[in-house]
Amino acid sequence: MKVIQSKKSFAVVVVVLALAAGGVVTYKLTSSKASGSIAKTPVSTTAAPAGLIGATAPTTSGELWVLVNKTTAANVQLMNTTSARPLAVYPVSNAATSIASNGSTLLAVAQATARTGAVSFYDSSNFKPAGTVALPGPATEVVAGPIPQTFYALVSVNGVDSVDVLNASTHRISLSDPLPASTDSMAVSPDGSTLYALQGNGTVSFINLANGKVTQSFGTSNGARQLAISPDGTKLFELKGSLSDDNVGVLNIATEAQLYVLPAPANCVQVTVDPSGSLLYDFVGTPQYGNIQVFNASK
User: Fold this and answer.
1) What is the pTM of this model?
2) For residue 26, is it within any domain?
3) How far apart are CA 165 and CA 161, in angstroms?
4) What CATH number has the domain bearing residue 192?
5) Are 196 and 187 in contact (CB under 8 A)?
6) Angle 193-194-198 (CA atoms, 0-180°, nearest 5)?
7) Is residue 4 included in any domain, yes or no?
8) Structural domain includes residue 236
9) Three-state SS for 41?
10) pLDDT tens, residue order, the chain (299 aa)
11) For residue 57, how many C-alpha atoms fall within 13 Å in the half-sphere facing its CB?
12) Which residue segment(s) compose the domain that 69 sits in?
């Protein structure tokens, strides 16, 4: 059972020295219960397809893509957050697990079966296929980075997690770095140098993408499930809790501290931030219903 944070403020800091890849890495593990919780009502709520399991960040015009998978039939839908009706619907593999956009030209859809995985690319203007990269194992998440043709896939092979850096032009894996065990989600810094890996116990690890080494880590709380990053790279948004009682911790990357906690609806499956960094998008999905709730991202 996942642990839900209390609203009382408490923190314990432990510094551990560990050998990693031939060097000494300092891990500052901060265990903290949620502080600064903010009671907010959504700026807006828009109906979304039942079976929603993932989404992209919105564009400046308010359009975004959602991934719907009801096991027997999966599709990708182009949505406008001011309208409950999809602008377009396209079928995808029933193995689809995650979707990402480079914000302009490309969409990436991750796929996972029991032993295999892949990421398929599509032209975001017409959803025509733009190539597929086969992966060594199931891909549970795909995220975009600052370079338009580069995407990052979270892959697990026999319980060993890694991030595979994908080139959408050559349809090849350009780099593969190991990840800490039980990594559930990740985000990439705006300059493309650092990957933030979120583990289920709430630890966020900083990984140098050039050499694959963990440079530092800090702890947040148990029940961490998904991670998003602000456009300016200063904050992480951590979806945590159980599906029936969620919240979003806003983390300052520089100080490794939780700034405040934002609400998240029950059955929230993912959070993203708009291009301005001022709005938090909470995506809600069950086999019976879905919706998109938007909150102010600031305190």
Assistant:
1) 0.86
2) no
3) 13
4) 2.130.10.10
5) yes
6) 160
7) no
8) yes
9) coil
10) 333 333 333 233 333 333 333 332 322 323 333 456 676 889 999 999 999 999 999 998 889 999 999 877 999 999 987 777 899 999 999 999 999 999 989 999 999 999 999 999 999 999 999 999 999 999 999 999 999 999 999 999 998 999 999 999 999 999 999 999 999 999 999 999 999 999 989 999 999 999 999 999 999 877 899 999 999 999 999 999 887 788 999 999 999 999 999 989 999 999 999 999 999 999 999 999 999 999 999 87
11) 26
12) 32-296
Of 176, 177, 172, 118, nearest to 142 by C-alpha is 118
Q: What is the DSSP letter of 235?
A: E
Structure tokens, 37: 């919780």
Q: Confirm if 30 and 11 have CB atoms less than 8 A apart.
A: yes
Query: 269 with 285: CB under 8 angstroms?
Result: yes
Please indicate, yes or no, if residue 2 is contained in any of the structural domains.
no
Residue 96: Cβ within 10 Å count: 22
The count of C-alpha atoms lying within 13 angstroms of the C-alpha of 73, restricted to the half-sphere facing its C-beta, is 7
Burial class (CB in 10 A: 0-12, 13-18, 19+), 2: middle
Number of domains in the chain: 1
Half-sphere exposure (Cβ direction) of 236: Cα atoms closer than 13 Å: 33
CA distance 285 to 267: 6
> In degrees, to the nearest 5, what angle opens at C-alpha 167 toward C-alphas 60 and 228?
45
Q: Are strands 224-229 and 279-285 parallel, antiparallel or unpaired?
A: unpaired
